[in-house]
Write a structure and sequence with these properties.
The protein has 335 residues and is mainly alpha-helical. Helices cover 41% and strands 6% of the residues. The protein folds into 2 domains: 212 residues, D-Maltodextrin-Binding Protein, domain 2; 80 residues, no CATH class. It has 10 helices and 6 strands; from the N terminus they run H-E-E-E-H-H-E-H-H-E-E-H-H-H-H-H. Helix 2 packs across helix 8, helix 5 packs across helix 6 and helix 8 runs antiparallel to helix 9.
Amino acid sequence: MPTTPDELTEVLRAFKAAKPDCLPLSFVMNGGNEDVCILLSAFGFGDNPDHYVVTNDKQVVYTLADEGIIPGLEWLHQLYEEGLIDPEVFTHDFNTYVSKAAGNRYGVYTAWDSNSAGTPTDYVALPALKNANGEYNITRQNAMGFDLGRAVITCTNKYPEITAAWIDQLYDPIISVQANWGTYGDETQDNIFELLDDGTLSHLPIPDGVVPYELRMKTNLGGPLAILDEYYGVYTTKPADAAARLDDMKNLYAPYMQMDYNFPPVFLDSATTERITQIEADLKPFAESQKAAWIMNGNVAAEWDGYISNLKAYGLDELLGLKQAALDSYFANME
């Protein structure tokens, strides 16, 4: 099992040598859970899908504007030049991506977990990689399991109290459990749960070859919900794939997170929200397109200063100022 980017490079070369039709490393470029950002944790602040991290002195950093990521992008370009990266990472969609994983085409691929492609027994999690100085830094993600905007009651609603009462019932534990994962008793398709005689819900095994997320999306509601730790063993069981994922996070990644903070879900006034959205609408696609271009074509070090100038022209400094003000307010209100 590799412990450094250089060792991972050797493993990818071994995959290619041992199996000519193998795609040693694959991901979905700028594809959220399927992006390559987790492998960049060994470089600077690393990267995550929204590109914001918070340092231990509570400062907001835009990961794709930090020069510490340059060696990581150069490393990925080296892999691409050697033919160790799936050439379709820039173009394939999610369904194509996971179908190749399910066909055992990959040596290494990035995903929510190995169940994402229906391959729970064919792959194991890659542990944290350490950098050239022997240091670990798993980059925190900002998906905290607490989402804003799951439901909205608009000003045109004639009966907001009735709507609010309906929303409130979605927080009933048994209803929330189904809203999150799916329901039971459907005679036309596979079910997520079995309803037990005591009124609790027990997770059914996921059928072989079925991706848990895809099955759950057929019957879960989403929307407002709450799943608390104390629900397990009282209202429902913990799904096996989630338990395994939590074990991996606890044992393989959490010990190597150097940052103490995530960027939290914060409430902003409408003007601030609109301005952040305006800046990100241009800045984020530009930054992500450059990230992809550098992996494919190289030249990141030579082009870096011009790239930063362009980010600033798109409003990077203002964006970080707005994000920092929101973070400062959040911490002030937490004291």
